[in-house]
Specification:
This protein has 253 residues and is mostly helical. The protein folds into two domains: 69 residues, N-terminal domain of phosphatidylinositol transfer protein sec14p (Helicase, Ruva Protein, domain 3, Orthogonal Bundle), CATH 1.10.8.20; 152 residues, CRAL-TRIO lipid binding domain (Phosphatidylinositol Transfer Protein Sec14p, 3-Layer(aba) Sandwich), CATH 3.40.525. It is globular. About 4% of the residues have low confidence. InterPro entries: CRAL-TRIO_dom, CRAL-TRIO_dom_sf, CRAL/TRIO_N_dom, CRAL/TRIO_N_dom_sf.
């Protein structure tokens, strides 16, 4: 059974246990295991699915994640949506309800909505981490990944001055970006079907303000889970197994 086939199996499948055990052992041997709670099966499966159950590549991704969190406490120590609610209410960020043709989650960041007088770059980037932690709990996202659109309309010198070299390095560790010019509507159609995108981006999906508000509500709904992740990112997360993680998700045909 290849990695793609393994990725389709449910978390409790017996065939996945050997891979989980191998990754846990490799992490312990590499010194990547936490001092607190052990690495949970669910936590390790996120990295295995992201790398098609290649244990060596999964270990590299896992160690990078743990290192990034350890080196970035100013971002990762507080994952409270309520603490950045004013920024979220500015329609700064959304996870679109429709996945793309590959099954990937689609994220939008509207940088021009960030008021640098009110919100530090660390608070802004914390929003990305909250979203990443929540959607990475979705099995389908573990399998299909995510894509992000960074809308730089309204980007100014004031924004640029907020990004110091240290923060830029931390951001670059987790992002890879396609750049588009002013005619981004036609460019985006090369990457996303119009039914995925809001009308403001040349699509037929829900408007961007609606999408941002829906995602803000989702983050607030998972505030307790995010507080658990901030305290113990490698442990089991207590959530309701019968409730869909993202309640308004729509799947592409």
């Amino acid at each position: 059974m290849n990695g793609a086939e393994l990725s389709e199996l449910p978390d409790e499948s017996e065939q996945l246990r050997a891979f989980v055990s191998r990754l846990r052992q490799a992490a312990d041997e590499a010194g990547g295991g936490p001092a607190g709670p052990p690495l949970s099966d669910g936590f390790l499966l996120k990295f295995l699915r992201a790398r098609d159950f290649d244990v060596e590549l999964s270990l590299k991704l896992l160690l990078n994640y743990l290192r990034w969190r350890r080196d970035s406490p100013e971002i990762s120590s507080c994952l409270s949506p309520s603490s950045v609610l004013g920024l979220l209410h500015m329609s700064y960020h959304a996870v679109l309800p429709q996945r793309d043709h590959a099954g990937s989650r689609v994220l939008i960041y509207r940088i021009g909505q960030w008021n640098t007088k009110d919100w530090s770059p660390y608070q802004v980037f914390r929003v990305s981490l909250m979203t990443s932690e929540i959607i990475s709990m979705e099995t389908e996202t573990q399998r299909r990944g995510l894509k992000a659109i960074f809308d730089l309309q309204g980007w100014s010198l004031g924004h640029a001055l907020q990004i110091n070299p240290s923060l830029a390095k931390k951001i670059s560790c987790v992002l890879s970006i396609h750049m588009h010019g002013a005619d981004f509507h036609s460019d985006l159609r090369h990457f996303f079907h119009p039914h995925v995108l809001p009308p403001e981006y040349g699509g037929h999906g829900p408007g961007i303000d609606e999408a941002c508000q829906d995602w803000t509500n989702q983050l607030l709904h998972f505030e307790h889970i995010l507080s658990q992740i901030a305290a113990h990112p490698t442990g089991d997360i207590c959530s309701c197994p019968d409730e869909p993680l993202i309640r308004k998700e729509v799947h592409s045909e």
